[in-house]
């Protein structure tokens, strides 16, 4: 079903400070076989069996980071009921990052714009899908590394232990469901795509753990090699070491997927990664 847009393109403005939101968490699959056999081919498919939660989200207006397609804002998830505790445990706290999607023209003449809400949600679900696939593929890469280390012993160098941020798909709506209004309980009904065509949905977010420290691009999407600049500065020695390790993971992934694909556009800070691309 193709939902009918409920608004035309809007200029990107400050997010609302307190919003009622519905959240679905992204749980990567343990095995890539499920993905390749197309049993659970997409995040949207996986969502069918996942509970959703309702909560209050307070988003800081000024962005923490600003990219070509998204802005990242510090956000606080407010406790709504006992079940919100599950979300806090998943994200490692109440403070997270809410990312908004936008479009801008290459010359920057027209202000950044947000597409109609249904289109915005579709793009956000696509971003979540890429995180879902890439988290699974990176876990698989570490399975390979760990099995080789069991076989051959530890290598004479440090192996970076990296992972993609814990993340969730989130949309803001003007009303809570009847059940949560009555009892303050979070929603645990199964996710249905039809929920997304509701006219009560105002906007969408990608929720992520907050990556602190210098945010760098280790590998871009054009070339499978370390970037010469990780942002505005050169990569530090430690960052370059991480970037070289990530190039190695691309080789492993290419072989593991029998040439189907590998992760690119590796970026983040410390042991956390986000916003990947999947080259196929
Ligand atoms: N989880 C995060 N924690 C902290 N900052 C982030 C996070 N994700 C993104 N950012 C910041 O927001 C910027 C844009 O986000 P990103 O997901 O890279 O979007 P784009 O698709 O525009 O590259 C990043 O360059 C970074 O500065
Ligand atoms: Mg980016």
TrEMBL record:
SUPFAM superfamilies: Protein kinase-like (PK-like) (SSF56112). InterPro entries: a-kinase_dom (IPR004166), Kinase-like_dom_sf (IPR011009). The keyword tRNA-binding does not apply. Pfam families: Alpha_kinase. Keywords: Kinase, Serine/threonine-protein kinase, Transferase. It comes from the Eukaryota. Residues 39-280 form the Alpha-type protein kinase domain. One of its GO terms (molecular function) is protein serine/threonine kinase activity. The keyword Cell cycle does not apply. This is Alpha-type protein kinase domain-containing protein. It comes from Ephemerocybe angulata.
């Amino acid at each position: 079903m193709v939902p009918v847009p409920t608004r035309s393109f809007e200029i990107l403005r400050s997010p609302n400070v307190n919003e009622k939101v519905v959240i679905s968490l992204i749980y990567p699959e343990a095995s890539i076989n499920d993905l390749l056999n197309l049993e659970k081919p997409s995040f949207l498919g996986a969502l069918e069996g996942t509970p959703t939660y309702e909560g209050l989200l307070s988003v800081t207006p000024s962005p923490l980071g600003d990219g070509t397609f998204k802005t990242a804002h510090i956000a606080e998830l407010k406790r709504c009921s006992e079940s919100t505790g599950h979300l806090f445990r998943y994200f490692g706290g109440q403070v997270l990052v809410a990312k908004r999607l936008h479009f801008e023209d290459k010359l920057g003449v027209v202000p950044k714009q947000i597409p109609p809400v249904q289109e915005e949600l579709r793009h956000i679900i696509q971003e979540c899908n890429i995180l879902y696939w890439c988290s699974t593929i990176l876990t698989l890469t570490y399975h390979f590394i760990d099995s080789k280390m069991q076989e051959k012993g530890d290598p004479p160098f440090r192996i970076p232990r990296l992972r993609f941020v814990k993340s969730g798909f989130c949309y803001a709506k003007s009303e809570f469901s009847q059940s949560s209004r009555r009892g303050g309980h979070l929603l645990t009904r199964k996710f249905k795509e039809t929920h997304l065509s509701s006219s009560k949905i105002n906007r969408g977010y990608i929720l992520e753990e907050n990556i602190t420290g210098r945010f760098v691009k280790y590998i871009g999407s054009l070339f499978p090699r370390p970037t010469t600049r990780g942002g505005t500065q050169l990569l530090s020695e430690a960052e370059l070491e991480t970037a070289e390790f990530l190039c190695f993971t691309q080789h492993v992934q290419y072989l593991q997927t029998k040439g189907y694909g590998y992760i690119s556009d590796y970026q983040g800070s410390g042991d956390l990664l986000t916003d990947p691309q999947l080259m196929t």
